TrEMBL record:
TM annotation in the entry: 163-183
Keyword terms, alphabetized: Membrane, Oxidoreductase, Transmembrane, Transmembrane helix
Domain Alcohol dehydrogenase-like C-terminal per the UniProt entry, residue ranges: 170-289
Source domain of life: Bacteria
Source species of the chain: Sporolactobacillus nakayamae
Classification via PANTHER family: L-THREONINE 3-DEHYDROGENASE
Entry keyword Cell division: no
Domain Alcohol dehydrogenase-like N-terminal: start-end pairs: 24-131
Pfam families: ADH_N, ADH_zinc_N
InterPro entries: ADH-like_C (IPR013149), ADH-like_N (IPR013154), GroES-like_sf (IPR011032), NAD(P)-bd_dom_sf (IPR036291), Zn_alcohol_dh (IPR050129)
Molecular function GO labels: oxidoreductase activity
Record protein name field: (R,R)-butanediol dehydrogenase / meso-butanediol dehydrogenase / diacetyl reductase
Length: 328
């Protein structure tokens, strides 16, 4: 089978590999679509998160059950998405079943083989059955949609909030769609430097800006930081209203400098948002199955896995696409 393996910073290779041999309690999955996540680009650019090389990358996917243990709740032909998190199960958060806050959280594609492969072996308890919808590729967005859903929940969204979202990438635009269609928020502005991504945000119905104006200072009830650009986190404390909230889902490749005095003087609430709960992952799958959100517009490219090395090089330099999928 074909796999995409990480050999180090800037070095990903498409190779042939043997089909995985399932262990007790594992299910063999035929991967149909898999998505490139921002964390995959962190791995490519900086070598973040990975524990060993070479490793099969990827953690966002939809696939089909090929084989499983006798007595399993799934059957051959079932479509599934997976919970890709690999918690340590020993830290204080894990002992509270708060796996998303695990002190040593890992993901498939980082600490064990991932889904940029034609087949993968997955523990049955990590699989969520999904319906066979017309556009199966949409279900690849289940995991990042769960990230955006958890972000919105952590932000304690209020009906009359005026919201600024830093970033028109997949998480930022999924957060926008959730705020608009699920939380029914009307005043949402999306900021990004990419004209292509801003055009996509506008097509989805967002107000968009490229840069902040002096009038934007202290004007937003809620700020969502999804970019991982240190300058955006610094700007967030400036544009948040007195008594406002900042919710951060981004991961950063370098240290962040902020004016902490503004947090104190404006009594800002700053929340981190790490992955999602298992229930939110199921809820995200159900939202996609319902067709309630126009998520199809976020998939801007579907490519064969053979194009992965070129795509990673392009995306690491300039993020113009929104969500890129591999069809396997």
């Amino acid at each position: 089978m074909k796999v995409l393996r990480n050999y180090g910073i800037g070095d990903v290779r498409v190779e042939q590999a043997e089909l995985p041999i399932t262990q007790n309690g594992e299910v063999l999955i035929k991967v149909h679509y898999a998505g490139i996540c921002g964390s995959d680009l962190h791995i490519y650019r900086k070598g973040m998160f990975v524990q060993c090389l070479k490793e099969t990358m990827g953690h966002e996917c939809v696939g089909e059950v090929v084989s499983m243990d006798a007595g399993a709740s799934l059957k051959a032909g079932d479509y599934v998405v997976c919970d890709p998190r690999v918690p340590c199960l020993n830290c204080s958060a894990c002992k509270e079943n708060a796996w998303n806050r695990c002190a040593h959280i890992g993901f498939i594609g980082e600490v064990r083989p991932g889904c940029f492969a034609e087949y993968m072996a997955v523990p049955v308890e990590k699989l969520i059955p999904v319906k066979e919808i017309r556009h199966l590729e949409w279900l690849t967005l289940t995991e990042p949609l769960a990230v955006a859903l958890h972000l919105c929940r952590r932000a304690a969204v209020l009906f009359n909030d005026k919201v600024l979202i830093f970033g028109a990438g997949p998480i930022g635009l999924m957060a926008f769609l959730l705020l608009k269609y699920v939380f029914h928020i009307n005043q949402i502005t999306v900021m990004d430097l990419s004209d292509q991504r801003l055009s996509l945000a506008q097509a989805l119905g967002a107000n968009t800006i490229r840069t902040l104006k002096s009038s934007d200072q202290s004007s937003f009830d809620l700020v969502l930081e999804t970019t991982g650009a240190p300058v955006c986190m610094g700007q967030a404390v400036g544009v948040a209203k007195s008594g406002g909230r900042i919710s951060v889902v981004a991961l950063y490749e370098s240290k962040v400098a902020i004016d902490a005095n503004q947090i104190t003087e404006k009594e800002l609430s700053v929340h981190g948002s790490s992955t999602y709960t298992t229930d939110e992952l199921r809820e995200a799958a159900q939202l996609i199955e319902s067709g309630h959100l126009p998520l199809d517009k976020l998939i801007t490219r579907i490519a064969p896995i053979e194009e992965a090395p070129i795509l990673f090089e392009q995306l690491a330099k300039e993020a113009q696409d929104c969500k890129v999928l591999f069809q396997l």
